[in-house]
Amino acid sequence: MKMNKTSFRVLETWAFPFAIIAIFGFGCAALQPEKPKTLVPTDRGTAVFLEKYEFKGPPEGWALMRNIEGGDFELGFLKFEKGDFPSQTTFMYDDQPYGGSQTLEKRAKYYCTRFLFNSGIDLRITRQERVTLDGREAIAINLEGENPNRSEKAKSKVYLVKKGNRIISFVCTQWRPLNGTYSQEPFDHFEAFVKSFKFLKKDFYENFEDELKKAGL
Prior knowledge:
The chain is α+β, with helices and mostly antiparallel strands. The protein has a domain at 71-214: 3-Layer(aba) Sandwich (Protein Transport Mog1p, Chain A). The chain has helices at residues 104-114, 185-196, 204-214; strands spanning 8-13, 24-25, 28-29, 39-41, 47-49, 53-55, 63-67, 75-80, 88-94, 122-133, 136-147, 152-163, 166-177, 198-199. The strands form three sheets. Strands 1-7-8-9-13-12-11-10 form an eight-stranded antiparallel beta sheet, with helices on both faces. Strand 4 and strand 5 (47-49) form a beta hairpin.
């Protein structure tokens, strides 16, 4: 979640068509296995990401972020908003949130000590509650904080969610100058993203656990 140090690439704005690039070598076309398209819209008003997840994305004007160096998140969206720097909002799905505990309360406690740590924002929890997302146990955390030295502030919503023996997360953070006003609309898009998020395939950890069970371990 350390956005100031995470390497990512802005691939496109929402609903912008992807180009399929054919690779040719030395004048001869090399037949390559077809890779899944990054983001494919459905007739259900959702989109499928790399054939792995389905969700309702934000409207036009948001850029799709995809990590390319194995960092802190897998996919997310970014929007630069009107107003003085740093008026912007990001939200994302992260399958490896801070901490190692498989207990939601313990994970949440540790998570909040690390979240936005490098930003200099002095965060405080404004609300924390147990919720259920798609039948899974979860904790919803609302945070706010300021950094007077940089004349900026941030407001975040974090979901830590039990998924089998692991905990995953969804995170939305809105940045504003100290005299700026927060906007609810980006958080509404985030909530729609989270509550529509579906896993279409088993992930690496689930497949690994299946292999251990088969081996009797």
